[in-house]
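Intended use. Records like the one below are meant for learning the mapping from a protein sequence to its folded structure. Do not use them to infer anything beyond what is encoded.
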Amino acid sequence: MQRHIRLAIYDLTKGNFQELAELAKGSMLPIFSKEPGFVEYGVADVGNRKLCSITIWETREQAEKSVHLASSWVKDNVTDRVRLVTTYVGDLAFLAASPVYA
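Structure written out for the chain above:
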């Protein structure tokens, strides 16, 4: 099954990554989770006060819609903490994970 990704890079302009990650987990994740086609969401500290936001979706249209959802959330919640550098929407060739053993 083809998956689609939204990848956004932000400059962190105020505060620290952990604070922003907690805000995103508590507030952005529930918004994405309610959307049709949502698969996964995460944020990563990529150094130099930059962070990456990643979402995976079932369709390209859903991934493109998530750009607007994220933009609205940023505007309403963290516009004083981050500045969008760039956003990409694309087809995900594969995403593999190691099995987790208990």
